[in-house]
Write a structure and sequence with these properties.
- The protein has one domain: 3-Layer(aba) Sandwich (Rossmann fold).
- The chain has a 5-stranded parallel beta sheet, with helices on both faces.
- It is built from 9 helices and 5 strands.
- The two termini are 20 Å apart.
- The chain is α/β, with parallel strands linked by helices and 209 residues long.
- One cytidine-5'-diphosphate binds next to α1, α7 and α9.
- It comes from Reyranella soli.
């Protein structure tokens, strides 16, 4: 049987990262949150003398550990550098190598099923209504102590959705053979259960208990 390679894509706060982490733990697979790469490139371009293209070419795994990459501002900055074709091209090799290691892997992002691993046997496109996603992101920000208001979260998320879907270079788009998982009315457990059912319908089962 081929290694289990799971490609997960979707917009901000759809729940793709949470799902990817849980699937990786369940199947004992390495996980790459590809959004972190774009966040790290934007951070390096703002804090060093490198251009975004140079930062992408020089990126190392250790650069992804920076806690400053987790903020909403970093997400907005990431979506700007992510529209530069040469930045995407310079991040391709790292992601393809991660995806095609012998153990299998889980990757989540915007173009995993369409560009990074169109050959993945399991592709999941996670969505949720804008209202549900704004509510989730707002709750997360409040829990982290951020001082924000819902209309601002909504405006920023709508802008990022638009930028990610309308750009020419690898826009956010479902692969033709992706399983669509709308999590608007699902908690993380229900989304995990639905994804597992889909993966087992493809003939993959976890080996451990
Ligand atoms: O990675 P992405 O931006 O798509 O979303 P996330 O960080 O995985 O999830 C955003 C928030 O939604 C987290 O607080 C999750 O606990 C929550 N959530 C979820 O992940 N899945 C659901 N089906 C419902 C809520
Ligand atoms: O967790 P959230 O969805 O808020 O953001 P993220 O996954 O960390 O992605 C941040 C930004 O990086 C996105 O808005 C995209 O513009 C970009 N990105 C991308 O273009 N391609 C990917 N495979 C992953 C992220």
């Amino acid at each position: 049987m081929k290694p289990l390679l799971i490609a997960i894509d979707g917009p901000a706060a759809s729940g793709k990262g949470t799902l990817a982490k849980r699937l990786a733990a369940h199947f004992k697979l390495p996980h790459l949150d590809s959004g972190l790469l774009y966040r790290a490139v934007a951070w390096a371009a703002a804090h060093t003398s490198r251009t975004p293209e140079e930062a992408a070419a020089a990126l190392e795994a250790a650069d992804l550990d920076n806690p400053a990459l987790r903020t909403d501002e970093a997400g907005q900055a990431a979506s700007k550098v992510a529209a530069i074709p040469q930045v995407r091209a310079n991040l391709l090799k790292f992601q393809k190598e991660f995806a095609h290691q012998a153990s299998g892997a889980v990757l989540d992002g915007r173009d995993i099923g369409t560009v990074i691993c169109p050959d993945a046997p399991v592709k999941i496109f996670v969505t949720a209504s804008l209202e549900a996603r704004v509510e989730r992101r707002y709750q997360e920000l409040r829990e982290r102590g951020a001082d924000t208001i819902k209309p601002r979260v909504l405006a920023e998320m709508a802008e990022r959705d638009r930028r990610d879907s309308e750009r020419a270079a690898s826009p956010l788009k479902a692969a033709p053979d992706a399983y669509h998982l709308d999590t608007s009315d699902m908690d993380a457990d229900a989304a995990f259960a639905a994804a597992l059912a889909f993966i087992s319908s493809k003939g993959f089962r976890s080996s451990g208990p």
